[in-house]
Amino acid sequence: MAETSERPYVLCHMTTSVDGRIKVRRWTTIDADSHYEVVHKRLGGDAWMCGRITMQGYADSAEPLTSAPAEEPVSREDHVARTDAPGYAVALDARGAMDWGARNDIEGDHVIVLTTGQASDDRLRRLKAGGQSYIIAGERAVDFALALAKLKRLFGIERLLVEGGGRINGSMLKAGLVDELSLLLAPAVDGVIGTPALFDFEGGEADSMGSRRRLTRTACEPFDDGTVWLRYRIEPVG
Fold this sequence. Notes:
By secondary structure, the chain is an alpha/beta fold.
């Protein structure tokens, strides 16, 4: 596992059904989101990171730029718009597809777009004009280790909550970049084959994390509605 001195301490914070699925919107027998934000705040992160599906809603509600950015050469270097925000919202967008317009914060948390070399010059110009920060980590696929190092070095982020889809969570777990799991286990069963799970990545039986990561329970807190909040320390085996 990467040294946390070189990157933020990473907590994966998620809600799942008892069978490990994460499509909470279709569990109509409970309010699966009722504890999520409260626990999110209790975890005390400097920043939180989500993927495009979650972040698209925030981008779609943005006010448009008042004028088009100038057609000038763009440096392919990282852009830091501010470092004094009370918190940071990291939007994973490998292709640079989301248009944030003039929106550069989410409830006071400054928007940092995490992208790759696939992002177009026009998208980078628009992000800079809109007041968002962006970091480039990887040419086509996101280099998560590099991204985390940049988040700490450029923005001073020490504690990051990863609240992604199964593929984001799985990629980071496989790379040894998740230090702790905060799991809200909801009293619901999904059961549909192919539904995204807490951690997902491509591979065969030999690629399983079951023999490579040790989870040690550090806390267990039940709620009245049947949800259980579990916390696990995650460490490499051997």
